[in-house]
Amino acid sequence: MNITEIKKLDKERIVPTYARYDMVAEKGAGACCWSKEGKKYIDFTAGIGVNCLGFCDRGWIEAVTEQLGKLQHVSNLFYTEPQVKVAEMLTERSGMAKVFFGNSGAEANEAAIKTARKYGFMKKGEKAYKIITLENSFHGRTMAAITATGQEHYHKFFTPFLEGFEYCPANDGEAMERLADENTCAIMMEMVQGEGGVVPLEAEFVKKAEKICREKGILLIADEVQTGIGRTGKLFAYEHFGIQPDIVTFAKGIGGGLPIGGALFGEKCCDTLQPGDHGTTYGGNPVACAGAVEVLKRMDGAFLAEVEKKGSYIKEKLQAIPKVKKVTGMGMMLGVEIEGKKAADAVAESLEKGLMILTAKDRVRLLPPLTITFEEIDEGIEILKSVLK
């Protein structure tokens, strides 16, 4: 099909839940993407944080292709080697006990919410179902996850919501102390509020939340869907804060481009869910897990140190641009506050000049592949600089 035919069919046959940018992607390699017309783009999006190894990484392709030749799916009624390999790697690296595999970040958070609710029921009784999340948070678009999301914009049209969620202002430890009562089963938070503008939480507040959880028998859930799997320079962002959550949710980068997510559980709640309590047909799919094994193999100490180095390099380059007011975030998850231009306009103009970037509320958001080269970073920053002049 040509470009016109693709766009026409998209408009006629696909539900318009996304306002697409004006580019038909055809192929990619590393941190470069080419359109159907053959135009090259530097990618600072990684498929919204998914393509952590970039486009079409050779090692990743070999891993998933080999698995495709063996077994593409068999369901969770049977054992498979790729799934237990990923589980072993994740638990050993995180210090958690067990893992549940799903297909996405929203599903990962649903598993965490259900686990917290059952844990509260078993430990404190049927009224202990309250979950505290943060204002300006984002946890997904399913009904429970969107209820957990602390932004009114995402709540419009979809009432009634699940009961039992309360929202605490980010970094307000006193408010958290007041909200956490005998009916609270969990506190759920992102270490960096991604869709909320790429805003890291304050370390003191995160420590305070952990302390409240320990003192009151509440589960601490770290939503690492966007921040996890090396994005901030650690395997998980909570490591920067010196805490140990009871549940850690993950997705996006773990599959390197294939749909896989899940929740890691600590000893306190790793056996809360029992057969029949939860499930998934596709979760832990052998091919997706083969990709995840390759991703985790690559993320050793040297790789993660390089991510931190690249993140600092990008931040320094951005801060030297006159129209950049502020840069927030951690590692290679950065939010850029600009002046003189709306973030959405900066994204559109950057795309015209060959750079793929994102927005997060009123900021430009950068989530480059973790394998991007310094030369590609320089090329992308020069395009952004020209757009902001």
TrEMBL record:
<feature type="binding site">
    <location>
        <begin position="105"/>
        <end position="106"/>
    </location>
    <ligand>
        <name>pyridoxal 5'-phosphate</name>
    </ligand>
</feature>
<keyword id="KW-0663">Pyridoxal phosphate</keyword>
<feature type="binding site">
    <location>
        <position position="138"/>
    </location>
    <ligand>
        <name>pyridoxal 5'-phosphate</name>
    </ligand>
</feature>
<feature type="binding site">
    <location>
        <begin position="223"/>
        <end position="226"/>
    </location>
    <ligand>
        <name>pyridoxal 5'-phosphate</name>
    </ligand>
</feature>
<dbReference type="InterPro" id="IPR015421">
    <property type="entry name" value="PyrdxlP-dep_Trfase_major"/>
</dbReference>
<keyword id="KW-0028">Amino-acid biosynthesis</keyword>
<dbReference type="InterPro" id="IPR004636">
    <property type="entry name" value="AcOrn/SuccOrn_fam"/>
</dbReference>
<comment type="similarity">
    <text>Belongs to the class-III pyridoxal-phosphate-dependent aminotransferase family. ArgD subfamily.</text>
</comment>
<comment type="subunit">
    <text>Homodimer.</text>
</comment>
<dbReference type="GO" id="GO:0005737">
    <property type="term" value="C:cytoplasm"/>
</dbReference>
<feature type="modified residue" description="N6-(pyridoxal phosphate)lysine">
    <location>
        <position position="252"/>
    </location>
</feature>
<feature type="binding site">
    <location>
        <position position="141"/>
    </location>
    <ligand>
        <name>N(2)-acetyl-L-ornithine</name>
    </ligand>
</feature>
<dbReference type="InterPro" id="IPR015422">
    <property type="entry name" value="PyrdxlP-dep_Trfase_small"/>
</dbReference>
<feature type="binding site">
    <location>
        <position position="280"/>
    </location>
    <ligand>
        <name>N(2)-acetyl-L-ornithine</name>
    </ligand>
</feature>
<keyword id="KW-0055">Arginine biosynthesis</keyword>
<comment type="pathway">
    <text>Amino-acid biosynthesis; L-arginine biosynthesis; N(2)-acetyl-L-ornithine from L-glutamate: step 4/4.</text>
</comment>
<dbReference type="InterPro" id="IPR050103">
    <property type="entry name" value="Class-III_PLP-dep_AT"/>
</dbReference>
<dbReference type="InterPro" id="IPR005814">
    <property type="entry name" value="Aminotrans_3"/>
</dbReference>
<dbReference type="Pfam" id="PF00202">
    <property type="entry name" value="Aminotran_3"/>
</dbReference>
<keyword id="KW-0963">Cytoplasm</keyword>
<protein>
    <recommendedName>
        <fullName>Acetylornithine aminotransferase</fullName>
        <ecNumber>2.6.1.11</ecNumber>
    </recommendedName>
</protein>
<feature type="binding site">
    <location>
        <position position="281"/>
    </location>
    <ligand>
        <name>pyridoxal 5'-phosphate</name>
    </ligand>
</feature>
<dbReference type="GO" id="GO:0030170">
    <property type="term" value="F:pyridoxal phosphate binding"/>
</dbReference>
<dbReference type="GO" id="GO:0006526">
    <property type="term" value="P:L-arginine biosynthetic process"/>
</dbReference>
<dbReference type="InterPro" id="IPR049704">
    <property type="entry name" value="Aminotrans_3_PPA_site"/>
</dbReference>
<dbReference type="InterPro" id="IPR015424">
    <property type="entry name" value="PyrdxlP-dep_Trfase"/>
</dbReference>
<dbReference type="GO" id="GO:0003992">
    <property type="term" value="F:N2-acetyl-L-ornithine:2-oxoglutarate 5-aminotransferase activity"/>
</dbReference>
<keyword id="KW-0032">Aminotransferase</keyword>
<keyword id="KW-0808">Transferase</keyword>
<dbReference type="GO" id="GO:0042802">
    <property type="term" value="F:identical protein binding"/>
</dbReference>
